[in-house]
Amino acid sequence: MTAKILIVTGDAAESLEVLYPYQRLREEGYDVHIAAPARKQLQFVVHDFEPGFDTYTEKPGYTWPADLAFAEVDPGQYAALVIPGGRAPEYLRNDPELRKICKSFFDADKPVAQICHGPLLTAAVDGLRGRRVTAYPALEPDMQAAGATFQDAEAVVDGALVSSRAWPDHPAWMREFLTVLRAKAPVT
Questions:
Q1: Relative orientation angle of helices 170-184 and 15-28, to the nearest 10 degrees
Q2: E strand or H helix at 143, and its extent?
Q3: What is the pLDDT of residues 118-166, one digit of tens each?
Q4: CB 135 within 8 A of CB 165
Q5: Rg (CA), the chain
Q6: Of 134, 186, 126, 188, which Cα lies nearest the Cα of 157?
Q7: What is the spatial distance between Cα 188 and Cα 1, in angstroms, rounded to a whole number?
Q8: Is the dihedral of CA 176, 22, 74, 163 positive or negative?
Q9: Residue-wise over 151-169: b if at least 16 C-beta within 10 A, else e?
Q10: What is the rounded CA–CA span in Å between residue 63 and residue 105?
Q11: Structural contact between residues 118 and 169, judged by C-beta atoms closer than 8 angstroms
Q12: 27-62 b/e with 16+ CB inside 10 Å = b?
């Protein structure tokens, strides 16, 4: 049976940070499902950098259907979890169903890939304490407050947790995550 991977996201997630791992993991042979607060058409965004701006800009991105609502997810059916960034993690971390899902992956030491603002969600379930992580650089104080050691790198691996700064780091992030996945949840 093919291993299943769960991507948890919502409206205002960064388009590339959802769709790149979705397609890359499917290409590798995994069965990938996207879960959100409700089964609906999600509206992603595009974060980019413009000359003269102090931070990234946000534009409308792709739309994509959620396969499942968080309340429908059985974490035991999934081998790994992917948490994209964008603004979605800021409000998703308040969802009690999603917090239970995320905590179950950490409790079972299953592979978790997080990128950009995704670590806001894992911090909310106390999944970062004592770990080495990276995230969008502006989140360094948040990562430290969550008890993590922040590293400004393309990808940081700490056991089954693989983190990355943002979509420009996708090749390093997925390369490291696939190394963890192949060891813990190989495609059959």
A1: 40
A2: helix 140-145
A3: 999 999 999 999 999 999 999 999 999 999 999 999 999 999 999 999 9
A4: yes
A5: 15
A6: 134
A7: 6
A8: positive
A9: beebbbbbebbbbbbbbeb
A10: 27
A11: no
A12: ebebbbbbbbbeeeebebbbbeeeeeeeebeeeebe
Q: How far apart are CA 72 and CA 94, in angstroms?
A: 17
Q: Which amino acid is at 117?
A: H
Tell me which residue has tokens 């949840």. Answer: 185
Residue 79 Rama label (left phi>0; alpha psi -120 to 50; beta): alpha
The question of whether 33 is a catalytic residue gets the answer no
Using alpha carbons, list the distances in angstroms from residue 122 to 54, 103, 168, 176. Answer: 27, 8, 21, 19
Beta partners for 43? 63
Structure tokens at 58: 């946000």
Token code pair at residue 6:
């769960």
Burial 104-127 (b: 16+ CB within 10 A, else e): bbbeeebbbbbbbbbbbbbbbbeb
Confidence of residue 2 (pLDDT cuts 50, 70, 90): confident
- Tell me the per-residue pLDDT of 14-53, one tens digit each, with 9 for 90 and over: 999 999 999 999 999 999 999 999 999 999 999 998 999 9
